[in-house]
Amino acid sequence: PPPAPGYYDTSCFKRGDLLEVPRTLFIHFGIYLGENRVAHLMPDILPAFTGDRRQIQQVVTNKRLILGVITKTASIRVDTVEDFAYGGSILVNHMDRLFEDQVLGSEEAARRAEKLVGATAHSLPFSFTFIFFFFFFFFSSPQFCETVKMIIRDQRSVLASALVGLASIVCLGLAPSTTLPTIFIPFFLWMAG
Length: 193
What we know:
The protein is α+β, with helices and mostly antiparallel strands and 193 residues long. The protein has helices at 53-57, 62-71, 81-85, 106-116, 124-139, 142-153, 156-172, 176-192; strands at 18-22, 27-34, 37-43, 73-80, 91-93, 120-122.
């Protein structure tokens, strides 16, 4: 039978392999520790507030992730291969084979990764740069564009824009800066839908 969705064949991974998961803006890296476990650096705000390992080890929610990115707070954690990949395809990075003299062997890389589990990193200046790139690429992503198209095609957006326009006329008065958008925005949404 075909593998279940979210199933990853870990038989091709060796302890100490550098795994990568391509994302939209970056590549997420982790070190395979064996037994379906991957050590990786994950943005997470929770380690800044608590040392409770049970709470921290739970799967990072989007809110925790975004707040961790904003404050540039991250921790090295161990997750299953499935949680590490988060639905993406996993590649084994073999760049180390290009060099004759390896700095670290696979086992040493895995041991060092295990020693760093739980370590927390924090750097505020970087977070502002990341926020800029996050919003720039998020709003230019295909998902965002599809959402905008869906909103434009939905006839309820015509009604909502007309009501917002009428409310602006009531609050700000009858003027070209309120009346023209009240007429043209619903009209263009209606035509596009």
